[in-house]
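Researcher: I've been going back and forth with a colleague about how MmgE/PrpD family protein might be arranged in three dimensions. Neither of us has a model we trust, so I'd like an independent prediction. The organism is Penicilliopsis zonata CBS 506.65, in case that matters for your notes. Sequence below.
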Amino acid sequence: MESATEELCHWISNLKLADIPPEQVTRAKYLVLDGLACALIGAQLPWSQDAVHGVLSMEAGGACEIIGWERRIGPLSAALLNSTFIQGFELDDYHRDAPIHSNAIVLPILLAVLEHNGSAAEETPYQSPTGAEFLLAAIAGYETGPRVGLGVYGVEVLSRGWHSGAIFGPAAAAAAATKLLGLSATQTEEAMGMACTQAGGLMAAQYESNVKRMQHGFAARNGLFAALMARSGYTGIKRVLERPYGGFLSTFSLGNGREPRYRPERVVEALGSSWEMDRIVVKPYASMAATHSTIDGLIALQVRHPGEMKDVNRIRRITIEMSEPAFKKGGWKPEKPLTPTGAQMTAVYAAAMQLLDGQVQPAQFAPAQLERVEVWELMERIVCVHNPALDTYQQRIHVEIGLDDETVALTTLTQFVDAPRGNKIPLSNEEILDKWRVVTAGVITAHRRAAIEEIVLNLDTEQDVRPLAELLYGRTEDIFS
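Model: Here is an independent structure prediction for MmgE/PrpD family protein. You can compare it with whatever you and your colleague have in mind.
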Protein backbone atom coordinates (compact mmCIF):
# COMPACT_ATOMS: atom_id res chain seq x y z
CA MET A 1 0.00 0.00 0.00
CA GLU A 2 1.12 3.56 -0.67
CA SER A 3 2.05 5.66 2.33
CA ALA A 4 0.34 9.00 2.82
CA THR A 5 3.46 10.74 1.55
CA GLU A 6 3.57 8.60 -1.59
CA GLU A 7 -0.14 9.00 -2.27
CA LEU A 8 0.06 12.78 -1.89
CA CYS A 9 3.11 13.00 -4.16
CA HIS A 10 1.52 10.82 -6.84
CA TRP A 11 -1.56 13.03 -6.74
CA ILE A 12 0.52 16.21 -7.09
CA SER A 13 2.53 14.80 -10.00
CA ASN A 14 -0.50 13.49 -11.89
CA LEU A 15 -2.93 16.35 -11.23
CA LYS A 16 -4.50 17.94 -14.33
CA LEU A 17 -6.61 21.05 -14.59
CA ALA A 18 -9.42 18.92 -16.04
CA ASP A 19 -9.51 17.03 -12.71
CA ILE A 20 -10.53 20.20 -10.87
CA PRO A 21 -14.14 21.46 -10.88
CA PRO A 22 -14.61 24.77 -12.73
CA GLU A 23 -15.77 26.50 -9.53
CA GLN A 24 -12.45 25.73 -7.83
CA VAL A 25 -10.47 26.76 -10.91
CA THR A 26 -12.25 30.12 -10.90
CA ARG A 27 -11.77 30.54 -7.15
CA ALA A 28 -8.05 29.87 -7.52
CA LYS A 29 -7.73 32.79 -9.93
CA TYR A 30 -9.28 35.15 -7.38
CA LEU A 31 -7.02 33.77 -4.65
CA VAL A 32 -4.01 34.51 -6.86
CA LEU A 33 -5.31 38.05 -7.42
CA ASP A 34 -5.67 38.59 -3.67
CA GLY A 35 -2.14 37.35 -3.04
CA LEU A 36 -0.72 39.71 -5.64
CA ALA A 37 -2.58 42.62 -4.04
CA CYS A 38 -0.86 41.81 -0.75
CA ALA A 39 2.55 41.58 -2.45
CA LEU A 40 2.17 44.93 -4.19
CA ILE A 41 1.03 46.78 -1.08
CA GLY A 42 3.75 45.13 0.99
CA ALA A 43 6.70 45.66 -1.35
CA GLN A 44 7.74 49.14 -0.23
CA LEU A 45 6.70 49.13 3.42
CA PRO A 46 9.50 50.33 5.73
CA TRP A 47 10.20 46.85 7.10
CA SER A 48 10.11 45.40 3.59
CA GLN A 49 12.71 47.97 2.54
CA ASP A 50 14.91 46.84 5.44
CA ALA A 51 14.51 43.22 4.31
CA VAL A 52 15.46 44.02 0.71
CA HIS A 53 18.49 46.07 1.69
CA GLY A 54 19.66 43.34 4.03
CA VAL A 55 19.32 40.56 1.47
CA LEU A 56 20.87 42.61 -1.33
CA SER A 57 23.87 43.31 0.90
CA MET A 58 24.76 39.60 0.93
CA GLU A 59 23.33 38.21 -2.32
CA ALA A 60 24.42 38.74 -5.92
CA GLY A 61 22.01 39.59 -8.69
CA GLY A 62 20.08 36.99 -10.63
CA ALA A 63 17.18 36.38 -12.98
CA CYS A 64 14.25 36.55 -10.54
CA GLU A 65 12.32 39.71 -9.83
CA ILE A 66 11.85 41.41 -6.52
CA ILE A 67 8.21 42.51 -6.80
CA GLY A 68 7.82 46.28 -6.90
CA TRP A 69 11.56 47.04 -6.90
CA GLU A 70 12.87 46.84 -10.49
CA ARG A 71 15.64 44.60 -9.15
CA ARG A 72 16.48 40.95 -9.79
CA ILE A 73 18.16 38.37 -7.59
CA GLY A 74 18.57 34.60 -7.32
CA PRO A 75 15.51 32.34 -7.00
CA LEU A 76 15.83 31.48 -3.30
CA SER A 77 16.24 35.08 -2.18
CA ALA A 78 13.48 36.25 -4.53
CA ALA A 79 11.10 33.70 -3.02
CA LEU A 80 12.08 34.82 0.48
CA LEU A 81 11.54 38.53 -0.20
CA ASN A 82 8.36 38.25 -2.26
CA SER A 83 6.84 36.06 0.44
CA THR A 84 7.83 38.65 3.03
CA PHE A 85 5.94 41.28 1.03
CA ILE A 86 2.77 39.17 0.87
CA GLN A 87 2.94 38.73 4.66
CA GLY A 88 3.95 42.38 5.00
CA PHE A 89 0.65 43.78 6.18
CA GLU A 90 -1.52 40.97 7.57
CA LEU A 91 -3.90 41.36 4.64
CA ASP A 92 -3.24 37.94 3.17
CA ASP A 93 -5.29 34.75 3.23
CA TYR A 94 -5.35 32.02 5.86
CA HIS A 95 -6.78 28.50 6.08
CA ARG A 96 -9.50 28.35 8.71
CA ASP A 97 -8.69 24.86 10.08
CA ALA A 98 -4.95 24.49 9.43
CA PRO A 99 -3.57 28.04 9.69
CA ILE A 100 -1.25 28.78 6.80
CA HIS A 101 -0.98 31.86 4.59
CA SER A 102 -1.03 29.92 1.34
CA ASN A 103 -0.31 32.73 -1.11
CA ALA A 104 2.79 33.77 0.85
CA ILE A 105 4.12 30.28 0.13
CA VAL A 106 2.78 29.52 -3.33
CA LEU A 107 3.04 32.70 -5.42
CA PRO A 108 6.70 33.54 -4.67
CA ILE A 109 7.63 29.97 -5.56
CA LEU A 110 5.83 30.04 -8.91
CA LEU A 111 7.32 33.39 -9.90
CA ALA A 112 10.82 32.24 -8.93
CA VAL A 113 10.51 28.98 -10.89
CA LEU A 114 9.10 30.84 -13.88
CA GLU A 115 12.03 33.25 -14.12
CA HIS A 116 14.83 30.97 -12.92
CA ASN A 117 13.89 28.34 -15.48
CA GLY A 118 14.42 30.84 -18.26
CA SER A 119 17.73 32.18 -16.94
CA ALA A 120 21.26 31.68 -18.23
CA ALA A 121 22.00 29.69 -15.04
CA GLU A 122 19.72 26.93 -16.27
CA GLU A 123 21.12 24.26 -18.55
CA THR A 124 17.83 22.46 -19.24
CA PRO A 125 15.68 23.35 -22.28
CA TYR A 126 13.19 26.06 -21.37
CA GLN A 127 9.60 26.57 -22.34
CA SER A 128 7.62 29.20 -20.49
CA PRO A 129 4.66 27.68 -18.63
CA THR A 130 1.17 28.52 -19.71
CA GLY A 131 -1.24 30.27 -17.41
CA ALA A 132 -3.06 26.97 -16.94
CA GLU A 133 0.16 25.30 -15.75
CA PHE A 134 0.84 28.20 -13.41
CA LEU A 135 -2.68 27.96 -12.00
CA LEU A 136 -2.48 24.18 -11.62
CA ALA A 137 0.76 24.46 -9.63
CA ALA A 138 -0.86 27.07 -7.41
CA ILE A 139 -3.76 24.72 -6.68
CA ALA A 140 -1.31 21.91 -5.82
CA GLY A 141 0.27 24.21 -3.25
CA TYR A 142 -3.08 25.47 -1.92
CA GLU A 143 -4.16 21.86 -1.31
CA THR A 144 -0.94 20.47 0.14
CA GLY A 145 -0.15 22.93 2.95
CA PRO A 146 -3.45 22.64 4.83
CA ARG A 147 -3.59 18.85 4.38
CA VAL A 148 -0.16 18.40 5.90
CA GLY A 149 -1.28 20.69 8.73
CA LEU A 150 -4.46 18.72 9.36
CA GLY A 151 -2.31 15.65 9.91
CA VAL A 152 -1.20 17.30 13.17
CA TYR A 153 -4.64 18.80 13.99
CA GLY A 154 -4.04 22.14 12.30
CA VAL A 155 -4.57 24.98 14.73
CA GLU A 156 -3.34 22.82 17.64
CA VAL A 157 0.24 23.37 16.45
CA LEU A 158 -0.32 27.12 16.76
CA SER A 159 -1.57 26.71 20.34
CA ARG A 160 1.76 25.11 21.29
CA GLY A 161 3.77 28.09 20.06
CA TRP A 162 4.76 27.00 16.56
CA HIS A 163 4.15 29.43 13.72
CA SER A 164 1.87 26.95 12.01
CA GLY A 165 2.15 28.33 8.47
CA ALA A 166 5.92 28.19 8.66
CA ILE A 167 5.62 24.55 9.78
CA PHE A 168 3.19 23.45 7.04
CA GLY A 169 4.66 25.81 4.43
CA PRO A 170 7.75 23.95 3.17
CA ALA A 171 5.57 21.05 1.99
CA ALA A 172 3.23 23.43 0.16
CA ALA A 173 6.19 25.17 -1.47
CA ALA A 174 7.66 21.86 -2.60
CA ALA A 175 4.30 20.83 -4.06
CA ALA A 176 3.89 24.04 -6.07
CA ALA A 177 7.49 24.05 -7.29
CA THR A 178 7.65 20.40 -8.32
CA LYS A 179 4.35 20.74 -10.16
CA LEU A 180 5.49 23.74 -12.18
CA LEU A 181 8.85 22.06 -12.83
CA GLY A 182 7.03 18.97 -14.09
CA LEU A 183 8.82 16.56 -11.74
CA SER A 184 7.84 12.92 -11.34
CA ALA A 185 6.09 11.50 -8.28
CA THR A 186 9.40 10.04 -7.09
CA GLN A 187 11.16 13.39 -7.41
CA THR A 188 8.23 15.09 -5.69
CA GLU A 189 8.64 12.73 -2.72
CA GLU A 190 12.37 13.52 -2.59
CA ALA A 191 11.52 17.23 -2.55
CA MET A 192 8.87 16.72 0.12
CA GLY A 193 11.42 14.92 2.30
CA MET A 194 13.94 17.73 1.97
CA ALA A 195 11.31 20.43 2.48
CA CYS A 196 9.75 18.98 5.62
CA THR A 197 13.08 18.56 7.40
CA GLN A 198 13.53 22.35 7.13
CA ALA A 199 10.23 23.25 8.81
CA GLY A 200 10.38 25.68 11.72
CA GLY A 201 9.08 28.95 13.09
CA LEU A 202 8.32 30.34 16.58
CA MET A 203 5.15 32.28 17.29
CA ALA A 204 6.98 34.58 19.70
CA ALA A 205 7.93 36.43 16.51
CA GLN A 206 4.54 38.15 16.69
CA TYR A 207 5.27 40.57 19.52
CA GLU A 208 7.75 43.13 18.25
CA SER A 209 9.94 41.60 15.54
CA ASN A 210 9.88 42.08 11.81
CA VAL A 211 10.83 38.43 11.31
CA LYS A 212 7.21 37.29 11.76
CA ARG A 213 6.62 38.68 8.28
CA MET A 214 9.54 36.66 6.91
CA GLN A 215 8.84 33.23 8.41
CA HIS A 216 6.58 32.10 5.57
CA GLY A 217 9.40 33.30 3.33
CA PHE A 218 11.80 30.90 5.03
CA ALA A 219 9.32 28.11 4.30
CA ALA A 220 8.92 29.20 0.67
CA ARG A 221 12.67 29.42 0.14
CA ASN A 222 13.28 26.03 1.73
CA GLY A 223 10.57 24.31 -0.29
CA LEU A 224 11.93 25.78 -3.52
CA PHE A 225 15.46 24.71 -2.58
CA ALA A 226 14.16 21.19 -1.95
CA ALA A 227 12.43 21.02 -5.34
CA LEU A 228 15.46 22.25 -7.27
CA MET A 229 17.72 19.82 -5.42
CA ALA A 230 15.33 16.94 -6.12
CA ARG A 231 15.41 17.83 -9.81
CA SER A 232 19.21 17.56 -9.69
CA GLY A 233 19.01 14.02 -8.29
CA TYR A 234 19.64 14.77 -4.62
CA THR A 235 17.56 12.53 -2.35
CA GLY A 236 15.38 13.40 0.62
CA ILE A 237 13.60 11.55 3.42
CA LYS A 238 11.27 8.85 2.09
CA ARG A 239 7.77 8.68 3.61
CA VAL A 240 8.66 11.83 5.54
CA LEU A 241 5.15 12.54 6.78
CA GLU A 242 4.38 9.27 8.56
CA ARG A 243 7.77 8.02 9.79
CA PRO A 244 7.16 7.05 13.45
CA TYR A 245 10.58 8.26 14.60
CA GLY A 246 11.71 11.66 13.36
CA GLY A 247 8.98 11.97 10.77
CA PHE A 248 7.15 15.23 10.20
CA LEU A 249 3.81 14.30 11.78
CA SER A 250 5.25 12.35 14.71
CA THR A 251 7.69 15.12 15.62
CA PHE A 252 5.39 18.13 15.31
CA SER A 253 2.65 16.35 17.27
CA LEU A 254 4.83 15.67 20.33
CA GLY A 255 3.17 16.90 23.52
CA ASN A 256 -0.23 17.64 22.03
CA GLY A 257 -2.10 15.20 24.31
CA ARG A 258 -4.22 13.93 21.40
CA GLU A 259 -5.16 10.34 20.68
CA PRO A 260 -4.05 9.45 18.10
CA ARG A 261 -1.23 11.94 18.29
CA TYR A 262 -1.14 12.46 14.52
CA ARG A 263 -3.24 11.43 11.52
CA PRO A 264 -1.44 10.59 8.26
CA GLU A 265 -4.76 9.46 6.77
CA ARG A 266 -6.11 13.01 7.14
CA VAL A 267 -3.46 14.28 4.73
CA VAL A 268 -4.95 12.31 1.83
CA GLU A 269 -8.58 12.07 2.93
CA ALA A 270 -10.94 12.75 -0.01
CA LEU A 271 -7.95 13.88 -2.07
CA GLY A 272 -9.23 15.24 -5.37
CA SER A 273 -12.87 15.33 -4.30
CA SER A 274 -12.86 17.65 -1.27
CA TRP A 275 -10.92 20.85 -1.83
CA GLU A 276 -9.03 22.54 1.00
CA MET A 277 -8.83 25.71 -1.05
CA ASP A 278 -12.56 26.11 -0.32
CA ARG A 279 -11.51 26.72 3.29
CA ILE A 280 -8.94 29.39 2.45
CA VAL A 281 -10.22 32.62 3.96
CA VAL A 282 -9.59 35.99 2.34
CA LYS A 283 -9.17 38.73 4.92
CA PRO A 284 -11.34 41.84 4.96
CA TYR A 285 -9.17 43.56 7.63
CA ALA A 286 -5.46 44.38 7.87
CA SER A 287 -4.84 42.43 11.06
CA MET A 288 -4.17 38.91 12.24
CA ALA A 289 -7.08 36.51 11.74
CA ALA A 290 -7.73 35.94 15.45
CA THR A 291 -8.61 39.63 15.80
CA HIS A 292 -11.34 39.56 13.15
CA SER A 293 -14.15 38.26 15.36
CA THR A 294 -13.44 41.14 17.73
CA ILE A 295 -13.72 43.65 14.89
CA ASP A 296 -16.92 42.02 13.58
CA GLY A 297 -18.47 42.01 17.05
CA LEU A 298 -17.79 45.70 17.57
CA ILE A 299 -19.11 46.55 14.10
CA ALA A 300 -22.33 44.71 14.96
CA LEU A 301 -22.65 46.67 18.21
CA GLN A 302 -21.97 49.95 16.39
CA VAL A 303 -24.78 49.12 13.96
CA ARG A 304 -27.24 47.99 16.66
CA HIS A 305 -26.41 50.68 19.21
CA PRO A 306 -25.03 53.68 17.31
CA GLY A 307 -25.84 56.19 20.02
CA GLU A 308 -24.27 54.27 22.87
CA MET A 309 -21.17 53.22 20.91
CA LYS A 310 -20.42 56.62 19.38
CA ASP A 311 -18.82 58.24 22.43
CA VAL A 312 -15.88 56.05 23.42
CA ASN A 313 -15.34 58.17 26.53
CA ARG A 314 -18.44 56.60 28.02
CA ILE A 315 -17.02 53.11 27.65
CA ARG A 316 -15.80 51.95 31.06
CA ARG A 317 -14.66 48.46 30.10
CA ILE A 318 -14.68 46.04 27.19
CA THR A 319 -14.28 42.33 27.86
CA ILE A 320 -13.49 40.08 24.91
CA GLU A 321 -14.07 36.38 25.57
CA MET A 322 -11.99 34.28 23.19
CA SER A 323 -11.16 30.71 22.20
CA GLU A 324 -7.83 29.33 23.43
CA PRO A 325 -5.98 29.70 20.08
CA ALA A 326 -7.27 33.24 19.61
CA PHE A 327 -6.43 34.20 23.20
CA LYS A 328 -2.91 32.78 23.08
CA LYS A 329 -2.17 34.47 19.80
CA GLY A 330 -4.13 37.71 20.00
CA GLY A 331 -5.34 38.20 23.57
CA TRP A 332 -2.22 39.85 24.96
CA LYS A 333 -2.05 43.42 26.25
CA PRO A 334 0.06 45.86 24.20
CA GLU A 335 2.86 47.78 25.84
CA LYS A 336 5.01 50.66 24.60
CA PRO A 337 6.87 50.75 22.30
CA LEU A 338 4.35 49.07 20.00
CA THR A 339 5.41 48.18 16.47
CA PRO A 340 3.04 47.76 13.51
CA THR A 341 3.70 44.01 13.67
CA GLY A 342 2.67 43.84 17.31
CA ALA A 343 -0.36 46.09 16.76
CA GLN A 344 -1.64 43.81 14.00
CA MET A 345 -1.37 40.77 16.26
CA THR A 346 -3.46 41.94 19.23
CA ALA A 347 -7.26 42.14 19.50
CA VAL A 348 -6.93 44.98 21.99
CA TYR A 349 -5.43 47.35 19.43
CA ALA A 350 -7.84 46.18 16.71
CA ALA A 351 -10.77 46.90 19.03
CA ALA A 352 -9.48 50.38 19.81
CA MET A 353 -9.07 51.20 16.12
CA GLN A 354 -12.54 49.98 15.22
CA LEU A 355 -14.05 52.09 17.98
CA LEU A 356 -12.03 55.22 17.24
CA ASP A 357 -11.70 55.13 13.45
CA GLY A 358 -14.52 52.80 12.40
CA GLN A 359 -12.13 50.60 10.40
CA VAL A 360 -9.03 48.40 10.70
CA GLN A 361 -7.16 48.89 7.45
CA PRO A 362 -3.53 49.75 6.58
CA ALA A 363 -3.92 53.40 7.59
CA GLN A 364 -4.66 52.34 11.17
CA PHE A 365 -1.11 50.97 11.54
CA ALA A 366 0.84 54.00 10.37
CA PRO A 367 3.55 55.04 12.86
CA ALA A 368 1.60 58.09 14.03
CA GLN A 369 -1.39 55.90 14.94
CA LEU A 370 0.73 53.84 17.32
CA GLU A 371 1.47 56.96 19.38
CA ARG A 372 -2.07 58.36 19.67
CA VAL A 373 -2.88 59.15 23.29
CA GLU A 374 -6.57 58.28 22.91
CA VAL A 375 -5.65 54.84 21.55
CA TRP A 376 -3.58 54.00 24.63
CA GLU A 377 -6.22 55.41 26.98
CA LEU A 378 -8.90 53.26 25.37
CA MET A 379 -6.72 50.13 25.34
CA GLU A 380 -6.39 50.39 29.12
CA ARG A 381 -10.13 49.64 29.32
CA ILE A 382 -10.04 46.60 27.02
CA VAL A 383 -9.26 43.12 28.33
CA CYS A 384 -9.21 39.70 26.65
CA VAL A 385 -10.00 36.48 28.53
CA HIS A 386 -10.06 32.82 27.54
CA ASN A 387 -13.47 31.16 27.67
CA PRO A 388 -13.18 27.36 27.11
CA ALA A 389 -16.81 27.26 25.95
CA LEU A 390 -15.77 29.26 22.87
CA ASP A 391 -12.86 27.06 21.75
CA THR A 392 -13.48 27.26 18.02
CA TYR A 393 -13.59 30.64 16.32
CA GLN A 394 -16.34 31.96 18.55
CA GLN A 395 -16.04 35.14 20.59
CA ARG A 396 -18.29 37.10 22.91
CA ILE A 397 -17.84 40.82 23.50
CA HIS A 398 -19.18 42.76 26.47
CA VAL A 399 -19.10 46.55 26.33
CA GLU A 400 -19.88 48.29 29.63
CA ILE A 401 -21.08 51.84 29.11
CA GLY A 402 -21.72 54.41 31.82
CA LEU A 403 -22.21 58.14 32.35
CA ASP A 404 -19.85 60.57 34.01
CA ASP A 405 -21.78 60.01 37.23
CA GLU A 406 -20.36 56.70 38.50
CA THR A 407 -23.35 56.17 40.76
CA VAL A 408 -25.50 55.45 37.70
CA ALA A 409 -25.68 51.73 36.84
CA LEU A 410 -23.65 50.58 33.86
CA THR A 411 -25.32 49.49 30.65
CA THR A 412 -23.78 46.31 29.26
CA LEU A 413 -24.01 45.58 25.55
CA THR A 414 -23.16 42.03 24.46
CA GLN A 415 -22.42 40.59 21.04
CA PHE A 416 -21.73 36.93 20.19
CA VAL A 417 -19.68 36.17 17.07
CA ASP A 418 -19.89 32.63 15.72
CA ALA A 419 -17.07 33.12 13.20
CA PRO A 420 -15.29 36.10 11.63
CA ARG A 421 -16.46 37.56 8.35
CA GLY A 422 -15.17 35.54 5.42
CA ASN A 423 -14.63 32.39 7.50
CA LYS A 424 -17.69 30.14 7.43
CA ILE A 425 -19.19 32.20 4.62
CA PRO A 426 -16.23 33.12 2.35
CA LEU A 427 -15.90 36.50 0.72
CA SER A 428 -17.37 36.31 -2.75
CA ASN A 429 -15.21 36.58 -5.84
CA GLU A 430 -16.70 40.03 -6.39
CA GLU A 431 -15.70 41.10 -2.88
CA ILE A 432 -12.16 39.86 -3.50
CA LEU A 433 -12.07 41.86 -6.72
CA ASP A 434 -13.23 44.96 -4.83
CA LYS A 435 -10.50 44.41 -2.21
CA TRP A 436 -7.87 44.07 -4.98
CA ARG A 437 -8.90 47.39 -6.49
CA VAL A 438 -9.12 49.23 -3.16
CA VAL A 439 -5.83 48.12 -1.61
CA THR A 440 -3.77 48.63 -4.78
CA ALA A 441 -5.13 52.15 -5.41
CA GLY A 442 -2.22 54.56 -5.00
CA VAL A 443 0.27 51.69 -4.93
CA ILE A 444 0.24 51.03 -8.70
CA THR A 445 -1.32 52.90 -11.60
CA ALA A 446 -4.86 52.16 -12.71
CA HIS A 447 -3.54 50.97 -16.09
CA ARG A 448 -1.12 48.52 -14.48
CA ARG A 449 -3.82 47.30 -12.11
CA ALA A 450 -6.22 46.62 -14.99
CA ALA A 451 -3.55 44.75 -16.96
CA ILE A 452 -2.68 42.46 -14.02
CA GLU A 453 -6.35 41.87 -13.33
CA GLU A 454 -7.00 40.91 -16.95
CA ILE A 455 -4.20 38.33 -17.03
CA VAL A 456 -4.95 36.75 -13.65
CA LEU A 457 -8.67 36.36 -14.20
CA ASN A 458 -7.95 34.64 -17.53
CA LEU A 459 -4.98 32.55 -16.41
CA ASP A 460 -6.47 29.29 -17.60
CA THR A 461 -6.41 30.54 -21.21
CA GLU A 462 -3.10 32.49 -21.17
CA GLN A 463 -0.41 30.91 -23.36
CA ASP A 464 2.51 32.66 -21.66
CA VAL A 465 2.55 33.87 -18.06
CA ARG A 466 5.73 35.94 -18.36
CA PRO A 467 3.84 39.22 -19.02
CA LEU A 468 2.32 38.89 -15.55
CA ALA A 469 5.78 38.72 -13.99
CA GLU A 470 6.86 41.82 -15.93
CA LEU A 471 3.86 43.76 -14.64
CA LEU A 472 4.83 42.90 -11.07
CA TYR A 473 8.43 43.99 -11.62
CA GLY A 474 7.76 47.74 -11.83
CA ARG A 475 8.27 49.89 -8.77
CA THR A 476 5.40 50.36 -6.32
CA GLU A 477 4.62 53.14 -3.87
CA ASP A 478 4.96 53.04 -0.08
CA ILE A 479 1.51 53.48 1.43
CA PHE A 480 3.02 55.33 4.41
CA SER A 481 4.97 57.85 2.31
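Researcher: What would you highlight for our discussion?
Model: I'd start with this: Strands lie at 64-66, 71-73, 94-95, 280-281, 315-322, 382-386, 395-401, 411-417. After that, consider the following. The chain has a mean pLDDT of 94.
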